[in-house]
């Protein structure tokens, strides 16, 4: 009898054990449910608080990489010219965050950018004093960026020797270190060269050679972004302007257009972001004509800057024009926009 009773007690305990296990797991699941619910409620309260006035929270998930909705200056083109302008704008800004600058580049790989397709040559042997001064400034700016000082050598026949002499005098007057060589001096310095038909040669002695455009581009870009410049990979597809009538002191009525915003289309997408701005800098290189046509400019003679050679000086000049209202370091007024409007091109005779 005692044996039967002991067996019954064991059987009862075996039947009761699963009940305890089920009850325990049920309570655990219930606790996890309320824990998750509490976490969700906290997250909802935080998001609701963030949506109050003064918050930048949005219930719509934004596309990553979109540019800011507002900028003081939008620079179209993220090559060395564009990033040089951005760098100098932030360098000259009196308040660190007082000037919002956005650089828009349509080619994230830079595989088709003029900067990286350039050989990176730099010289002062030009005929225009503005080009000589820009190159001298740039040479001093870039002397620590993989600069190979080797010099340029120009050769002239009897027919064009007088032009080389005129350019030489201009270059020396502006501070460039160049030397004229006769055919015998040229042969002595370069014995392997065939000097037949050469009447005169011009050799750069300092601040001429070539550099790594990719290193210069990244140096300017990293420094500018560290100072607060915004970067966006996209394409400017339109520039919206507002027209106003203005009267000059002579009584002439002019139709003045003021830029309101630019449309930036995101890569591989139909989505675009309008960016309100006051100034647009056209640094789009080979595509600058297309950008200029968005505001009705670019129907006159075609002119271009000679590669990345003068970019530090050009960037400073554009920054001075925007912030100071005029050129302070190098006078580039000869390159003013009116030369295009009046169809008066400025010719550089020493182009190779």
Explain what you see:
- α4 crosses α9 (311-323).
- Residues 1-24 have low confidence and may be disordered.
- β1, α2 (80-92) and β2 (101-105) form a beta-alpha-beta unit.
- This protein is α/β, with parallel strands linked by helices.
- The protein is built from ten helices and 13 strands.
- The longest helix has 49 residues, at 2-50.
- Helix content is 39%, strand content 19%.
- It has a four-stranded parallel sheet.
Strand and helix map with partners:
Layout: H1 2-50, E1 73-76, H2 80-92, E2 101-105, H3 114-117, E3 121-122, H4 129-141, E4 148-149, E5 153-156, H5 161-173, E6 178-181, H6 183-189, E7 200-204, E8 209-210, H7 213-226, E9 230-233, E10 235-247, E11 253-265, E12 272-276, E13 279-282, H8 288-293, H9 311-323, H10 338-341
Parallel strand pairs: 1-2, 1-13, 2-9
Antiparallel strand pairs: 3-8, 4-8, 5-7, 6-7, 10-11, 11-12
């Amino acid at each position: 009898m005692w044996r039967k009773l002991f067996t019954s007690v064991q059987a009862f305990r075996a039947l009761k054990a699963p009940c305890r296990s089920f009850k325990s797991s049920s309570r655990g699941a219930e606790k996890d449910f309320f824990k998750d619910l509490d976490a969700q409620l906290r997250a909802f309260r935080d998001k609701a608080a963030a949506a109050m006035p003064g918050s930048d929270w949005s219930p719509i998930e934004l596309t990553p990489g979109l540019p800011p909705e507002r900028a003081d200056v939008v620079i179209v083109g993220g090559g060395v010219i564009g990033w040089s302008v951005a760098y100098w704008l932030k360098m000259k800004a009196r308040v660190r965050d007082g000037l919002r600058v956005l650089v828009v580049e349509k080619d994230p790989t830079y595989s088709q950018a003029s900067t990286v397709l350039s050989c990176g040559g730099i010289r002062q042997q030009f005929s225009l004093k503005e080009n000589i001064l820009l190159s001298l400034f740039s040479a001093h700016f870039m002397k620590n960026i993989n600069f190979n000082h080797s010099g340029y050598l120009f050769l002239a026949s009897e027919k064009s020797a007088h032009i080389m002499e005129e350019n030489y005098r201009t270059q020396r007057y502006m501070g460039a270190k160049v030397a004229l060589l006769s055919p015998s001096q040229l042969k002595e310095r370069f014995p392997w060269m065939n000097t037949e038909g050469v009447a005169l040669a011009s050799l750069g002695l300092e601040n001429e050679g070539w550099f790594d455009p990719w290193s210069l581009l990244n140096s300017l870009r990293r420094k500018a972004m560290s100072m607060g410049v915004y970067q966006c990979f996209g394409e400017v597809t339109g520039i919206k302007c507002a027209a106003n009538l203005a009267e000059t002191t002579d009584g002439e009525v002019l139709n003045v257009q003021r830029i309101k915003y630019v449309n930036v289309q995101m890569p591989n997408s139909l989505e675009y972001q309008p960016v309100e701005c006051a100034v647009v800098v056209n640094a789009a290189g080979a595509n600058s004509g297309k950008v200029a046509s968005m505001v009705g400019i670019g129907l006159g003679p075609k002119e271009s800057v000679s590669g990345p050679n003068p970019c530090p000086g050009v960037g400073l000049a554009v920054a001075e024009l925007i912030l100071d209202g005029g050129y302070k370091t190098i006078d580039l007024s000869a390159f003013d926009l009116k030369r295009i409007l009046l169809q008066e091109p400025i010719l550089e005779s020493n182009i190779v």
